[in-house]
Amino acid sequence: MALWSGRFTEEVSEFTQRFGASLPVDKALYAQDIAGSKAHARMLGAQGIISEQDVEQITRGLDAIEARIEAGDFEFDINDEDIHMSVEKALIADIGEAGARLHTGRSRNDQVVTDTRLFAKQRAGDLMAANVALRKALVECAKKHFDVILPGYTHMQHAQPVFLSHHLLAYAWMFARDFKRLAAARDAADVCPLGSAALAGTTYPLDRRATADELGFSGITANSLDAVSDRDFLLDLSYAASVSCVHLSRLSEEIVLWSTSEFGFITLSDSFSTGSSIMPQKKNPDFAELIRGKAGRVVGDLVALLITLKSLPLAYNKDLQEDKEGAIDAARTLEDCYTCMAGMISTMTVNEAAMNNQVNKGYLAATDVADYLAKKGLPFRRAHEIVGHLVLLCDKRGCGLEDLSLEDFRAQSDLFEQDITQTLDAVSIADARTTEGGTGRSAIRDQLKLVEEALAFDEALVEGE
Ligand code: ARG
Questions:
Q1: Could you identify which of 154, 267, 392, 456 might form a hypothetical disulfide with 159, taking C-beta atoms 3.0 to 4.6 angstroms apart as the criterion?
Q2: Cβ–ligand 1 contact at 22 (below 6 Å)
Q3: CATH homologous superfamily of domain 360-424?
């Protein structure tokens, strides 16, 4: 019998029961549900709505149920609609009358969204911690390979030389922005809807702030209709997770590319690679590919929730039951991806020689040769054209700019002097980019300070909770 069976004369069919149930998904929220119920019961007691004896029994009963769930001794009844029904039914079975008083001044509508908000806060915090760990791995790798130089690319063509540390820190910044999004999602979840009841509030003299305080919420929702129908905080979490997964997919793509024999820039450790069941020589970057692929499902989770919420009238509608599965999945997926990526980055081998080798191809010094002329007074467009001619000449000879003689340079412009050869050295080219945020090592050192400051700040924010 369902807990709401009073006004019904017929049981739902087994099929509709199963179809309507959310227990297989929301039993993951048992701890939040029990915490919410305990806080609610204590507040009911403090307000004189139920007796202190009842509170005592309810609290003990709920603790026992929680312990049973945790020990795997709790029989979830597949005929229960959701975790709220399961726990309440068990409580009533265990302690009787007092258990039946727990749901006073409460509805599953405010109960479920309280549980979900507690869950979102917890998971956003977990993700923030995993995000920090990944950023640390990137920063460590950047420091370790501080002086390694490689081609920087635009359009996947050699553009200008950059330091590997600069390249890795670019990702650290992406993930630093993701951290902010996760923190914002945690804040968005941080108000307590309990007391909104089904949709309109309740006639009982509830102390909403006391329940909110006990549950660690910073405040309470201001409108009961909004409170039971709002899932924006889950959208925020899903969006934050999606953006971060997109960033992870970009990094994964580079890892896949850099592990090819064509690039050979990195070698993944065996622990983050797999073999082939047929081709004995294979060492595949499976985990980078998998992380790249996981972005699809997490973005899917976000889109699914957006569309579930689209056109929903106030207040609670059963459609909202579809909110949790995707959010749980998105959080778990991102957490695993962060952990996997951090491990992959900290164990990969950087093949400095392969990177260096490529720096000498593709006329990476061309912009600097043009700048050399422009700094001697030639308009940059004119200088650009002259260097274009020099590149054409190299193309014809099958050589690099560094192989041209001073005469070759001077044949294009007599502004060229002996010192042009220094301009062609990749390390000097990169180091000369000293603008704030540039790839020159002096600028990267400053950047590292900023990255580490942000990391320390964010880490404190994680630990603060
Ligand atoms: N299982 C429901 C959910 O996840 C709980 C709230 C149900 N409320 C209701 N009035 N049917 O949304």
A1: 154
A2: yes
A3: Fumarase/aspartase (C-terminal domain) (1.10.40.30)
